[in-house]
Amino acid sequence: MTGKSAKITQRHLDAASAVLNWYDSHRRHLPWRAGPGQPVDPYRVWLSEVMLQQTTVATVRSAFAEFTRRWPGVADLAAASRDEVMEQWAGLGYYARARNLHACAVAVVNDHGGVFPDTEDELRKLPGVGAYTAAAVAAIAFGRRAVVMDGNIERVAARWQAITTLLPAAKPEIHAEVDALTPDHRAGDFAQAMMDIGATICTPARKSKGRLSQPDCDACPLFETCSGRQGDPALLPLKKPKTPRPDRFGVAVVAEDEAGNILLERRGDKGMLGGMLVFPGSNWADGTPAQSRYPLEDYQAAKRLLEGGEAVTLNGNVEHIFSHFRVILTVIRVKPASGEGWLKVPKNELSGAALPTVMRKVARLAGLEAW
Question: CA 294 → CA 77, 139, 335, distances in Å?
Answer without folding.
Answer: 41, 51, 18
